[in-house]
Amino acid sequence: MKTIAIAGATGAVGAQMLECLHEQGIEANIRLLASARSAGKQIEDWTVEELTEDSFKGVDYVLGACENDVTKKWMPWAQKAGCVVVDNSSAFRLDENVPLVVPEINAEDIRKHQGIISNPNCSTIIALMAMHDLHELYNIQDVICTTFQAVSGAGVKGLRDLENQLKDPEATPEAFAHPIAFNVIPQIGSFDENGITSEEWKMQNEGRKILHAPELNVNCTCVRVPVWRSHSESITIRTEKPVDLDALKERLSHSEGVKLQDDPENNVYPMPIDTSNQDLVYVGRLRYDPADPTHRTVSLFCAGDQIRKGAASNAVQILKKLMEMDEQA
Amino acid sequence: MKTIAIAGATGAVGAQMLECLHEQGIEANIRLLASARSAGKQIEDWTVEELTEDSFKGVDYVLGACENDVTKKWMPWAQKAGCVVVDNSSAFRLDENVPLVVPEINAEDIRKHQGIISNPNCSTIIALMAMHDLHELYNIQDVICTTFQAVSGAGVKGLRDLENQLKDPEATPEAFAHPIAFNVIPQIGSFDENGITSEEWKMQNEGRKILHAPELNVNCTCVRVPVWRSHSESITIRTEKPVDLDALKERLSHSEGVKLQDDPENNVYPMPIDTSNQDLVYVGRLRYDPADPTHRTVSLFCAGDQIRKGAASNAVQILKKLMEMDEQA
Description:
2 copies of one chain form a homodimer.
Chain A: E1 3-7, H1 12-23, E2 29-34, E3 42-43, E4 46-47, E5 49-50, E6 61-64, H2 68-80, E7 84-87, H3 103-106, E8 116-118, H4 122-138, E9 140-149, H5 155-167, H6 198-211, E10 217-224, E11 231-239, H7 245-252, E12 258-260, H8 272-275, E13 281-288, E14 297-304, H9 308-328
């Protein structure tokens, strides 16, 4: 039996990864690694171990759920031990030797790995799950996207900010630059000299790599909203070929990992309260842009659980595919 | 001294109109009109009267803050009495004999009135306040907009939905089709056969009339968010002429009714908690779309109080201009 270590097992994504290993039926010896502070903690049948230089001996696969700086520190140790790492941090996503994978879209890229496979940004995964069928059918050229991102995207501190401010509107924010309760904050990540945030660049940079579409343009505005869990996105897309919305809906209704939630007359459309704590990305509000009679511009709204499909579930899906490929090799 | 009646004086917009009359220094005899249910209620020094066929005798100006159906009922009575009406409902906004006015943009249109002047939709006013300088300098052609609309946009029932759901997540929604607490709902208004809502059409239809730009295209996605007050909007704009962002910022920094709130490195950008209970529309996150090297595509984020500048303050500004014009005539 193979051995799988979760690095960062006590965070929201790490804990979700353990659940997803069970759900996806992956049988393996499991080791939970975290900082010295969390060592000794009991999670299900396992005792959390401190992540040290020696942690990866005897480990076959690592699921990485740590911040970038911590990931960069332990990655050489995992590589020295000969592990293959599926990493959720953004540290290696754009490295040309590292596949960046959404299994429903580019599972075959897993085969090119050299020891690391990266899991994409959460908003990127959710948007691409909603858009990749459209891209395959009609070739996406430009995307204009506005996100509605849940507080849990900023981890435990994000949840705590909203909790504290619901009790006391004057409570000092910890995760965000401003209060988030009953507010929206048009900043996620840090700004570059062009006034674009690190989070806003991810969908273009990672989308180009995942879709193998080096010319893809994405203009993104990332906004934090007072929602506990699940990111939503309002997206307008320009394609090379004219879109047939009926054909697209038919395709989406069979698309793996997607739920077509598009019956507006009956108030049916994607919403974060419906997509939380499950793995499907909901897609709806599909419509032509009335300004473009050539039907090369469409709009949609999508939502998905950013801790599950946006992070942990996607990483465990990658791992599962990788283990199947290794078995067949 | 002239006499001004507020029709619908007990609603959120009507009550705000009374406050705005004081704030904008309009001296007049005031009469507060509402349904029989509210008659007899005391507001400041006035007793609310029932709105009947005879209510408008001796009245010079009416501020209308009623629903469409109620407005259509009393409008002939006001016209018979020779009043000039500044109406906040959507009943007459697209009527070719009715000016639709944002005073900072098209105050001169007031002169063309034939007894009714309409106040535009709240999201439309806020977006146009943010965009009209850009339009005058560079000629806007296409707009792609996603809104973040506060619950008070749906009146007292909208506020009550959020209040109730904060106490009890299972509380049945009254104003909205779904729970709004910790959720976002991509529907405001009713859907047409193209999957576009009545609210989403307003910015194009009303924007064309206000800007005198019959070719303007607006693709809008209107979303309700759990914010008490102030609508925010994420907008991407394509122009005919290349934009000079520095020149635009300089212009916006002097634009009447606008506050340039654009210092992202210091976490300064428009947010609904900052724009509530005041009249300025905040504009920020101004940036070029990196996909368009010709600088004919820019994005911005704006926010404004939809009950004040989005409704009551704008209507009272129109009335004030109208009264000045009438005095000079």
